[in-house]
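[09:14] KT: can someone run the structure on this one? pasting the chain below
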Amino acid sequence: AVEVGRGDLVQTVVSTGRVITPARVEIGSVVLGTVRTVETKEGTVVKAGQVMARLKDEEQRAAVEQARGALAEAETRLTQFARLSAPSSEQALKQADANLEYADEEYKRVKRLFDKGYFSQAKLDEAERNLGVARAARENAQLQATSNSPKGSDYALAIARRDQARAALEVAQARLDNTVIKAPAPGMVLKRLMEPGDVVQQ
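[09:31] RB: done, structure tokens below
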């Protein structure tokens, strides 16, 4: 006999199904390369940013070093403009001004003496030629000083080359960083589809 009593009714349901993950991410390489190491296996729980695999990176490291050298060269060139070329051009312009002033005074003196009959036509022609040379040299020095000034074309070109070298270094560094494959979010590795030595596509 069983004593009657009040209680909860328990019912068991047996069924089949599959567990669906909240999110599934396929991780791959953004560059073409050869796998150096795979640092996870199926079932490994990873954190966001954890390294999962590395590709061979000798070529990318060499590109970074080359870009660093180009940037150092561009920065040196820019410093050279600021410290050497611009001041040197200014000094050359001052010298050209002085030479032009001297040649102009010499021409006027020779012209006066020529008009009085003391000098020949050849002497006057020589003084005029020297004046023309001094004017041309002064114009050239002016152009060079303007070009080497902080607002000049050569200086602007040096700045542009430095900026290009800096951008090239950033690109090379990004390519190097892409040889390390990291987990974009925390989770569990479901399938491992690469092994060391495999060539991976983008």
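[09:33] KT: thanks! The radius of gyration is 39 Å.
[09:34] RB: yep, looked fine to me
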